[in-house]
Design goal:
Distance between the termini of chain A: 23 Å
CATH architecture of the largest domain in chain B: 3-Layer(aba) Sandwich
Strand order of the largest sheet of chain B: 5-6-7-3-8-9
CATH topology of the largest domain in chain B: Rossmann fold
Low-confidence stretches of chain A: none
Shape of chain B: elongated
Helix content of chain B: 25-40%
Low-confidence stretches of chain B: 1-6
Helix content of chain A: over 70%
Radius of gyration of chain B: 23 Å
CATH class of the largest domain in chain B: Alpha Beta
Number of strands of chain B: 13
Largest sheet of chain A: none
Mean pLDDT of chain A: 88
Mean pLDDT of chain B: 87
Oligomer: heterodimer
Chain lengths: 265, 308
């Protein structure tokens, strides 16, 4: 890794990153606050508690936890986090190549591997931080609004890390297309296109039984924080698969970047 | 000293700082470089000339390690730049269209690239003076710079750590004559300090004023190389002879007839002047004019289809 490069990348994020952190945190806060203050929800919950309280306790369904888990999988969370992870990845190679700055940096004693690793050194903690932003927003709202229901803070933080892993997987796709393309726009278009298709497939494919299993090919199928938030069950298998989803395109991107000609810029 | 200011070229005997030997490069079916040889040694400024698309930038990018040669040998400061990035510690490179981070201030950008070079910017102050770059200029964000200012910053990031080898792809692009003169002085100064410089340009006057040696490339192949003096010796002369008899045969050694109008004939002449003068004296002409082709015209012959 290269210290000067990492410092530059962090400096470039000094405005965007806090804004995205605030956006995602605000999304978590808002979601829980709406849940806590909505008369409709409150009335429904009171009715459920009276009629099905024992049953809900038996199956371990907490409406607040269910509600909070929805926010993790919502496009707003994915968009906010994807702006950072895919944006950084796309700029890292094809963006800098197109701009002509990659040639200046790599004409120095800086290997392509170090260039790549330095970007990962910013991408990985950035994704985890944004995942935790949503968790912290939810926890703050729980503390402030005291909604009906209960979420153990540690489950929220683990779910945040898992959300960060999902963002890293999306960033991995961005890196892969960035390593192949010579123009930022092309890499971005491919990244967004593939991510949107995977996202749509993750909830459309299960609707048709013959191909329902294909939904398991998308990373989104391995991010369901509800059991964790409701019952404290950590899905280690899902975490491992998500990590693989991140590692596979990142590895392929690193190999491609190390071997490719840098003729643009 | 030649009129351009550079001293007569010395043929270096030290190992080249950068060298391509029989290097080829294809992009798909397009042959960008066809087994070219190119070398630049310490204490030498080599001009690298050729028309657009001739392969100059490709050759320079292979030397830097941004492109991988399909065949041949590449050596940069004693190592292979593709597999050994560390050899680039002593390299300064200016691409033809340098991308500079617009949000950074000029000074921060120079500091950043100096840190990536792992060398202190020992030459920054002197280079800024040559290029008329002030502290106020360096305190501004790069996005506020004009094209010429950006080019100056591009040159500064390449030279500020006083590298042993400078590879500059059209460094004079966008510079005003005053700054260009400062750049040429800076590069001469570095050459005199023993640095090797590979310099591409379309401005032939710059090349003539600055370079000790020249390599010319066209369609991916080297079409000429040598010292400026050697290239100059290949220049043709235009000989205009006027004789009294409009139909008299005029035969001159080393001459090719270009035009004949009555007693006036125009020739191109290559080679020794002595036999020509003897033959002219024997003709007893009414008038004779001998004019050397400019170096520009010599280069244009190489650039054109019918290179000698």
């Amino acid at each position: 890794m290269s210290g000067p490069l990492i410092r530059r990348l962090i400096a470039e994020q000094r405005v965007r990153m806090p804004l995205e952190f605030l956006l995602i945190g605000a999304w978590g806060f808002l979601l829980v606050a709406v849940f806590a203050t909505s008369e409709v929800f409150t009335a429904q919950l009171e009715a459920q508690a009276n009629e099905f309280g024992d049953l809900l306790d038996l199956v371990g369904i907490d409406p607040l936890a269910q509600w909070a888990s929805v926010g993790f999988e919502h496009p707003i969370f994915l968009l906010g986090g994807g702006l950072f992870s895919v944006g950084l990845a796309v700029r890292a190679i094809s963006g800098e190549l197109e701009a002509g700055s990659l040639a200046l940096a790599l004409a120095r004693p800086l290997s392509r591997g170090r260039w790549f690793a330095s970007h990962l050194a910013v991408l990985v903690p950035g994704c985890l931080l944004l995942g935790e932003a949503y968790a912290l927003g939810c926890l703050l709202a729980i503390g402030v609004t005291d909604p009906m229901g209960e979420i153990a803070p540690w489950t929220m933080l683990v779910a945040g890390a898992q959300g960060g892993l999902l963002l890293l997987a999306l960033g991995g796709l961005g890196f892969l297309f960035s390593a192949f393309a010579s123009e930022r726009g092309r890499a971005l278009a491919w990244s967004i296109g593939v991510i949107v298709v995977l996202y749509a497939a993750s909830f459309l494919l299960p609707l048709w039984k013959p191909i329902a299993g294909l939904a398991q090919a998308t990373p989104f199928a391995f991010f369901d924080p509800a059991p964790l938030l409701q019952r404290g069950e950590v899905a280690w298998g899902d975490i491992a698969v998500l990590a693989l989803y991140a590692l596979a395109p990142l590895s392929a991107a690193a190999v491609r970047f190390a071997r490719r000609d840098l003729a643009g810029g | 000293m030649r009129p351009g200011g550079a001293p007569a070229a010395k043929i270096p005997v030290v190992p080249p700082a950068a060298q391509l030997r029989g290097v080829s490069k294809r992009f798909g079916s397009f042959v960008a470089l066809d087994a070219i040889d190119l070398a630049v040694s310490p204490g030498e400024i080599r001009g690298f000339l050729g028309p657009n698309g001739a392969g100059k930038t490709t050759a320079m990018r292979i030397l830097v390690g941004l492109l991988r040669a399909d065949g041949g040998e590449v050596s940069l400061l004693g190592g292979d730049p593709w597999s050994r990035p560390q050899v680039r510690t002593e390299l300064g490179f200016l691409p033809s269209d340098p991308g500079l981070y617009g949000r950074m201030r000029g000074r921060d950008l120079l500091d950043h690239f100096a840190a990536l070079s792992e060398r202190p910017p020992v030459l920054r102050e002197a280079a800024c003076a040559h290029l008329r770059m002030t502290d106020e200029d360096l305190a501004r964000p790069v996005r506020t710079y004009s094209k010429g200012m950006r080019q100056k910053l591009g040159v500064l990031q390449a030279v500020q750590h006083d590298p042993a080898l400078l590879i500059l792809d059209e460094p004079g692009e966008g510079l005003d004559p005053l700054v260009m003169s400062g750049l040429l002085a800076l590069l001469r100064d570095r050459r005199d300090a023993g640095r090797a410089i590979l310099f591409s340009s379309h401005v032939l006057a710059e090349v003539e004023a600055l370079c000790d040696t020249v390599t010319m490339i066209r369609d991916g192949a080297i079409v000429g190389a040598g010292t400026i003096g050697e290239i100059a010796q290949r220049r043709s002369r235009q000989v205009v002879v006027e004789v009294a008899d409009p139909v008299a045969a005029i035969e001159l050694p080393g001459c090719e007839l270009v035009d004949r109008a009555g007693g006036r004939a125009t020739f191109s002449h290559y080679g020794e002047l002595g036999p020509l003068l003897t033959a002219l004296a024997a003709l007893a002409p009414r008038d004779v004019r001998i004019q050397e082709a400019s170096l520009d015209e010599v280069f244009m012959e190489y650039y054109g289809e019918a290179a000698p």
